[in-house]
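# step 3/5: fold
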Amino acid sequence: MIAMLKNSCRVALKELKHWIVPEKANTPLAVFPASAGILSEPLGVVLIISAWNYPFLLSLDPLVGAIAAGNAMVLKPSEIAPATSSLLAKLVMKYLDNSSIRVIEGSVAETSALLEQKWDKIFYTGNGRVARIVMTAAAKHLTPVLLELGGKSPVVIDAGINIQVATRRIIAGKWGCNNGQACISPDYIITTKDYASKLVDTLKIELERFYGKNPLESKGLSRIVNSNHFARLTKLLDEDKVSGKIVYGGERDKENLKIAPTILLDVPLDSLIMNEEIFGPLLPIILVNKIEESFDLINAGSKPLAAYLFTNNKKLKEHFVMSVSAGGIVINDTTVHLAVHTLPFGGVGESGMGAYHGKFSFDAFSHKKAVLYRGFAGDVAIRYPPYTPGKLRIMKALIVSGKRNIIRAVLGWGKV
């Protein structure tokens, strides 16, 4: 994640000279002679509230865009990662311009106090519950918001694929990304009843290859962030209708806040685990008769931050891309779109609003100001009263545009 942050800095330093150039815009005949452009200007003073799961990246990546766009900003790191929050405060004070960038540490009281202030934009990364609080506070000042949330990101697995490569990529995106504590982590799998046993068997083999026979002792497996989240995940796993569905894993170490990679097969859709974002190492598998049924199943829920499909079927890929609404889609892999700075990263609906990364970060913290330049020539009488039928006909033709319409209006030939 540090490497991704460094790349964001490199991209901004390299491309900023291009981003700040005013964009040229075409002008209609109605304002001839004229020229127009779109000027990017700073929004002003922005508030960035970051999350705990990738505390450096999710704090400083949006900060790069805000700095590039020329804003002053206040950063509020998550109190759930107190060591990182403290380090960020020290590093920002030491290395960045304190006249325009400040870090405020604290918990709910400090965040609430910040939200009472008037900002020119608020950037929040986290969950939907807090996002609603942020939006409510922002609405009092008509402050625009950019919300990076999460949701239940599905993985659809078709038959006839390289199942070893597919499961490895799922494992990397699920357990390799902070043990499932990531906003774009695969949340659940959908596959057919006929293919499920092969998928589960391959997942077991690859998980043991990566984390050993006792994954709780593996140094490659992240712990759960705190006891509250450990208890939340335990509750999902211990629900009566779910506890009997475990086909792999399920081991827990409460003292060290570790939960082993856990696979659950044929989980009921009305279970707790299928009705909230898991944000942990539990991976339910949902069974369907035909893979095409998965699309309606996904669209029946809230729009996810990411959606993944593994298939060699070209028509299925096209159908998935066109019919599934998500913040981002990846075919035959998971989570890697996060590292592509030329793609916007953001959610839709319950998974967020707005996007950033690369130039999209610069745009997220910029106001696109429209500028029209005119001289004193070309001042025509039809613009001014009295508005005769002939003037109105020509004005309408100019607005509608098209040489044929203008000629017809000047000659008085019928309706424009």
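# step 4/5: annotate
The radius of gyration is 27 Å.
# step 5/5: archive (pending)
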